[in-house]
């Protein structure tokens, strides 16, 4: 039960590039060896990596995968108006079959563009889990709870569901699914619910995933009402333990960056969404300098508008320089690191690195393309950050299993997935009119 990825170059954990083969143990789903072809055991399955680069599968650490149905539905508005006028009214009509169709579309797009793990926040989560199970991708799932604007019973039921879903689905899909408890954000979940439910999540060792410091409009009311910065409030409410992570972290001050570094909680940077909604520029280089664990996410497709993490890598490098007013900030190596080891570390996964013992979640990127030429070894990381795109991915492997071979996703019926998603999207918008 072994898979040999042969004839290519390999991106090592220190981001150097060398010619090597990669031997995968398909049974355990881990990398067995990296090295000279002559020294590796024969395998019973192989993938041709010649002319390509074997690198860790990209990890999309914050998304709302089923929002692919709302791709292009509402653009060019700030976060609060976009959510309240466009997204939430439609999401109120979303049914479980819609979530299934949207999740399948998002997963198809991610496997195509080299993502092997995604961390999701949504509802009707068992449908997303079923799509994960069938497609072979890895995921960190959860039900996102909102209490504002709800009566006591409905609010409590929503938070209870977040806890239950996280407990029920942890370890599903042969261990490829892990879970998080998910209060939606610090302004959409009441303090009393955090006080009650966070300790219960800790009893079950559940990491906590929530949105924080995304826009100024979200930060200011907390500062005015409580006299403390949002992440300080989060800490007081029992959040920010090691393993927890916040999506966005755009408007964080020095004290909050220090708090993230001290607690070991992670941040998922979502540069495209932050630019599109004009939310602001996260101080990524300052966070990295302070020792914060930072990963990368696309956020939902409706605010991106695709799930191609290669785009996100480039955006992170670009906006990181603007935010720091320094062209040397968030260099290519850091940007690539965010989407691989960085995101895997945020999610607590032994992945994101091509090394023996790590999860066999890897991709082969075709370097044989005009926009990636010339490609001597010392320019490959630059190309990954600034010139490569998701369509350059030739093969995708997750948990030791081939999900895409020669640009064909073998675990999903791509035309049927696209057709079903388009039908569900159309019906959903009609129902919401
Ligand atoms: Zn989000």
Question: What report would you give on this structure?
Answer:
With 433 residues, the chain is of the alpha/beta class. Helices cover 39% and strands 20% of the residues. The chain contains 14 helices and 21 strands. Strands 3-2-7-18-19-20-21 form a seven-stranded mixed sheet, with helices on one face. A four-stranded mixed sheet has the order 5-4-1-6, with no helix packed on it. A hairpin with a 2-residue loop joins strand 19 and strand 20. Helix 2 crosses helix 14, helix 4 packs parallel to helix 5 and helix 11 packs across helix 12. It is globular, with a radius of gyration of 21 Å. 56% of the residues are buried. The mean pLDDT is 97. The structure holds zinc ion. Zinc ion binds next to loops.
Quick synopsis:
The chain has 433 residues and is α/β, with parallel strands linked by helices. 39% of the residues lie in helices and 20% in strands. A hairpin with a 5-residue loop joins β2 (9-11) and β3 (17-19).
List keywords for this structure.
alpha/beta, seven-stranded mixed sheet, four-stranded mixed sheet, 14 helices, 39% helix, 20% strand
């Amino acid at each position: 039960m072994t898979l040999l990825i042969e004839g290519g170059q390999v991106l090592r954990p220190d981001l150097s590039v060398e010619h090597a083969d990669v031997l995968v143990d398909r049974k355990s789903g881990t990398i067995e060896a990296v090295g000279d072809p002559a020294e590796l055991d024969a395998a019973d399955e192989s993938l041709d990596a010649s002319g390509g680069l074997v690198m860790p599968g990209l990890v999309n650490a914050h998304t709302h995968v089923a929002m692919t149905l709302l791709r292009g539905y509402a653009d060019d508005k700030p976060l609060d108006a976009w959510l309240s006028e466009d997204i939430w009214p439609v999401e109120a009509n979303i049914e479980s079959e819609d979530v299934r169709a949207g999740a399948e579309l998002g997963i198809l797009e991610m496997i195509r563009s080299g993502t092997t793990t995604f961390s999701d926040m949504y509802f009707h989560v068992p449908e997303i889990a079923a799509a994960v199970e069938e497609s072979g991708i890895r995921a960190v799932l959860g039900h996102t709870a909102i209490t504002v604007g709800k009566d006591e019973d409905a609010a409590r039921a929503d938070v209870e569901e977040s806890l239950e879903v996280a407990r029920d689905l942890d370890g599903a899909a042969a261990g490829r699914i892990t879970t998080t408890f998910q209060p939606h954000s610090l302004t959409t979940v009441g303090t009393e619910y955090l006080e009650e439910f966070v300790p219960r999540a800790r009893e079950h060792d559940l990491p906590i995933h929530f949105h924080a410091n995304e826009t100024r409009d979200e930060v200011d009311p907390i500062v005015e009402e409580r006299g403390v910065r949002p992440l300080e409030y989060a800490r007081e409410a029992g959040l920010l333990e090691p393993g927890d992570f916040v999506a966005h972290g755009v408007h964080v001050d020095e004290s909050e960056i220090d708090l993230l570094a001290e607690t070991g909680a992670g941040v998922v940077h979502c540069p495209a969404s932050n630019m599109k909604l004009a939310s602001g520029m996260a101080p990524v280089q300052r966070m990295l300098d302070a020792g914060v664990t930072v990963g990368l996410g696309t956020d939902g497709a409706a605010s991106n508008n695709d799930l191609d993490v290669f785009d996100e890598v480039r955006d992170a490098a670009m906006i990181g320089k603007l935010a720091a007013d320094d062209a040397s900030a968030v260099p290519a190596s850091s940007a690539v690191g965010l989407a691989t080891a960085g995101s895997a570390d945020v999610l607590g996964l032994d992945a994101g690195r091509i090394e023996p013992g790590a999860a066999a979640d890897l991709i082969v990127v075709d370097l044989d393309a005009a926009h990636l030429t010339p490609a001597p070894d010392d320019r490959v990381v630059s190309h990954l950050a600034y010139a490569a795109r998701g369509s350059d991915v030739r093969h995708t492997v997750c948990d030791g299993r081939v999900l895409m071979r020669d640009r064909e996703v073998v675990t999903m019926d791509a035309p049927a997935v696209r057709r079903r998603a388009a039908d569900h999207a159309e019906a959903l918008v009609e129902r919401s009119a």
